[in-house]
Amino acid sequence: MTASPAGRTAAPARRERLNPLTSLAAAASTAVMTTAAASWVLSGTVVAGCLVLSLATGAARRVVPAGAAVLVPLGLSLLVLHGLFFPEGRTVLAEWGPARITAEGLQFAVQRILQLAAVVLALLLFSFSVSVPDLVAALSARGVQGRFAFVLASTLTLLPTIAGRARRIREAQESRGLVISRGLLSRVAAFRLQAVPLVLSLIEDAGTRAAALEARGLGNPGPRTTYREVPDSTAQRAVRAVLVVAALAALILRVVQSGA
């Protein structure tokens, strides 16, 4: 028994009812408020929420590997930096010369890793679930034209390729004899060898995509006409306004608390 064409298009239609600007506001405000709050409880809640949403939307197969590719090396570096060399640490768990593991350093590192994970997963979930044509059309409909829409579209079309490209680079280097042991130094050296070709390939790909988008007039100034209708509602516009105000309030509160 096969699904009818109407049945095949019903699910995407339900997923696209959310305006891409609402998704963008939610991801950006979540990143800002999580960073400003610096609370491991809030960060852990955001991480869990992003994982649940990625599973519900079917984006987990792309969000989780891409998030791991970003968070694992950064998390290890934070553990090494703050776990071994935390100046405010008082409770020493282990010590090797100038390096010492402190409970305060580990707690600070875990808090920063959770905070970073919340921001990365929120932005990745948005980038993997948003429709780039709908986002560009929504931005153009609200007067956001020219270079900003051009750069945003180019970046979002590039993000889904990062995890797969990093995996192919690692497999290619392992086929040439690269051995990654369980030691920290070996993993750091392997990350450096994989990060350089990844960044260079992303820069080259970004240039190619930018040239293609530029040739299609996306970066040209002046009025433009879009034939893509993106649904919106008063409720979603109100939600976006609340999210922006909440993010600004979190930033102001953080600045006041830092200056006090």
Automatic annotation (TrEMBL):
It is a multi-pass membrane protein. It holds the Pfam family CbiQ. The chain crosses the membrane at residues 21-43, 63-86, 113-132, 144-163, 238-256. CDD domains: EcfT. InterPro entries: ABC/ECF_trnsptr_transmembrane, ECF_transporter_component. It comes from the Bacteria. Keywords: Cell membrane, Membrane, Transmembrane, Transmembrane helix. The keyword Magnesium does not apply. Coiled coil: none annotated. The keyword Cell membrane applies. It is found in: Membrane. This is Energy-coupling factor transport system permease protein. The lineage of its organism: Bacteria, Bacillati, Actinomycetota, Actinomycetes, Micrococcales.
